[in-house]
């Protein structure tokens, strides 16, 4: 290559990087990073000098957004922003844009963040927090114009508090972390064979008798109604709804400890025996707490009216406690239940929830029940390349006119073990799961025969058979949750230069110092080029 060719090639690479809005861009002779995760819809780097943050920088505008920005800036830089009526950083809501959208304009003189609604302004602030970076003279925001709006309305993270219970403060920590990546739903998997974790006045024996233990004989726990209210309010303050799940008709062994008349005898299949042996657990026994990891052996009594009185009681009370529109009733892995009985249960339970004025949500198995309430949203947890007819079950919800939440287990089940990393997590969903595999899929290409509008959004679940502490949660969630954030928020793969693994890994790497300053104990995966300051 002669020098002229080499210069032309270098210019082409720089143009691609600048267009991609990826680190690095050259501004005013200096190299700056425009690394934002999830990738915005549009990033136009400026060429002028950056905005300089100092001890005199003042923020004007919306009080909640100012507080959120101050928190981020102080964590990252140690600087305390002043508040003033006409600060050089201006945060405001101007209605009119798409829901949750925002615009940032930063130049040497000022930074303006305008949200179409309070959530949009909050997301603009999160982006601005990611743009703050050090240079030789202190802290800057690069000159840039960003226009951004989410691809999907629903962007969720799920925490299983049944296999291991996690206290309110841990849940709040996850809310903060997820909101920073523009997630807007926290799905709490509140019940399973190992424990019932939410107090309900209508059925007090559930927490009195079925909440004390967890997987491996670890201590259990439960949320009081005040605890749940605190979680819901905290989530709302970060623009997140709570989607509570009471899993049934299977995953219900714990219910039998409190109300034995409602449950069937455990169905001990060869798979249940194998799982019990593999994970060193006992077989489930009627009336005894279950602390193993097998699934699919328990069931409510499908043909007993008392079951539907129970369903109406627990979902009725939960509906009154939950301002968000969704109630999740599980419906997964009813392996000891006939198809006919499963369909009957799904139809009656989804109707009870719909009659409460809520939108039922169920795992994809329920989509094959022909009489399911039409409004029921399906949650797909099959693989990126569907197996065993999981995609056909998911299409059942769409045929009814409802939408899907995409949670492909071999990509964004956050409890899957990493290829190199801590001895945490499981491997059953094609694991170990690399960060690249968590990233390398698109929500629109998993279930064929559906349209973009048939997808409500994306959710990354964290099951907690092996996850005991807040530190365990951080390790398993970060950095892979960033891949799910990008799948839920950013333009589709192939429609933006930013939506490539190479761009993503650079942008995630640039977030290392911010995550560290926020106390996030991420897994330092060797797939990511981590920036250290
Ligand atoms: C599931 O992973 N059983 C939804």
Would you kindly provide a written description of the structure presented here, covering whatever features stand out?
- The protein is α/β, with parallel strands linked by helices.
- It has two domains: 3-148, Chitobiase, domain 2, CATH 3.30.379.10; 154-517, Glycosidases (TIM Barrel, Alpha-Beta Barrel), CATH 3.20.20.80.
- It has helices spanning 3-20, 63-77, 118-131, 168-179, 205-209, 225-237, 253-258, 270-278, 305-321, 339-355, 390-399, 409-412, 435-439, 470-477, 480-489, 501-510, 512-517; strands at 25-27, 30-32, 42-45, 51-53, 58-61, 82-83, 89-93, 102-106, 111-115, 133-135, 138-141, 144-148, 154-160, 185-189, 191-192, 195-196, 241-248, 326-330, 359-363, 377-380, 404-406, 455-462.
- The strands form five sheets. Strands 13-14-17-18-19-20-21-22 form an eight-stranded parallel beta barrel, surrounded by seven helices.
- Helix 2 (63-77) runs parallel beside helix 3, helix 4 (168-179) runs parallel beside helix 6 (225-237) and helix 9 runs parallel beside helix 10 (339-355).
- The two termini are 36 Å apart.
- The structure holds acetamide.
């Amino acid at each position: 290559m002669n020098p002229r060719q080499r210069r032309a090639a270098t210019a082409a690479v720089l143009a691609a990087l600048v267009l991609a809005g990826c680190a690095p861009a050259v501004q005013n002779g200096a190299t700056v990073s425009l690394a934002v995760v999830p990738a915005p819809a549009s990033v136009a780097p400026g060429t002028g000098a950056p905005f300089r943050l100092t001890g005199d920088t003042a923020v004007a505008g919306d009080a909640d957004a100012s507080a959120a920005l101050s928190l981020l800036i102080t964590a990252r830089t140690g600087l305390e922003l002043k508040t003033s009526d006409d600060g050089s950083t201006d945060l405001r809501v101007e209605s009119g844009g798409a829901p949750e959208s925002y615009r940032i304009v930063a130049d040497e003189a000022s930074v303006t963040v305008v949200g179409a609604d309070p959530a949009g302004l909050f997301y603009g602030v999160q982006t601005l927090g990611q743009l703050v970076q050090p240079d030789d003279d202190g802290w800057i925001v690069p000159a840039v114009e960003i226009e951004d709006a989410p691809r999907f309305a629903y962007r969720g993270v799920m925490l299983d508090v049944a296999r291991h219970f996690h206290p309110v403060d841990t849940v709040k920590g996850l809310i903060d972390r997820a909101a920073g990546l523009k997630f807007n739903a926290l799905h709490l998997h509140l019940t399973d064979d190992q424990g019932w974790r939410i107090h309900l006045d209508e059925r007090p024996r559930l927490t009195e008798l079925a909440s004390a233990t967890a997987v491996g004989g670890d201590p259990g726990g439960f949320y009081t109604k005040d605890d749940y209210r605190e979680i819901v309010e905290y989530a709302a303050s970060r623009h997140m709804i709570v989607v509570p799940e009471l899993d049934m008709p299977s995953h219900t062994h714990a219910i039998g400890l409190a109300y034995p008349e409602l449950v069937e005898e455990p169905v001990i299949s060869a798979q249940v025996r194998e799982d019990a042996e593999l994970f060193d657990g006992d077989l489930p026994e009627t009336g005894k707490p279950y602390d193993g990891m097998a699934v699919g052996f328990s069931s409510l009594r499908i043909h007993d009216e008392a079951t539907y009185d129970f369903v109406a009681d627990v979902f009725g009370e939960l509906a009154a406690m939950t301002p968000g529109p969704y109630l999740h009733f599980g419906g997964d892995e009813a392996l000891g239940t006939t198809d006919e009985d499963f369909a009957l249960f799904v139809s009656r339970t989804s109707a009870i929830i719909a009659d409460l004025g809520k939108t039922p949500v169920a795992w994809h198995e329920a989509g094959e029940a022909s009489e399911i309430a039409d409004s029921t949203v399906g949650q797909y947890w099959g693989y990126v390349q569907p197996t065993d007819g999981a995609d056909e079950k998911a299409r059942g919800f769409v045929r009814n006119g409802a939408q899907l939440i995409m949670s492909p287990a071999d990509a964004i089940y956050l409890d899957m073990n990493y290829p190199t990393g801590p001895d945490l997590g499981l491997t059953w969903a094609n694991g170990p799961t690399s960060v690249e595999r968590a990233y390398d899929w698109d929500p629109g290409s998993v279930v064929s025969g559906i349209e973009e509008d048939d997808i409500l959004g994306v959710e990354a679940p964290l099951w907690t058979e092996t996850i005991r502490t807040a530190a365990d949660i951080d390790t398993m969630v970060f950095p892979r949750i960033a891949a799910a954030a990008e799948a839920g928020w950013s333009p589709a793969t192939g429609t933006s230069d930013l939506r490539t693994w190479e761009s993503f890994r650079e942008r995630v790497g640039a977030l290392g110092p911010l995550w560290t300053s926020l106390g996030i104990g991420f897994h330092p995966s060797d797939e990511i080029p981590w920036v250290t300051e």
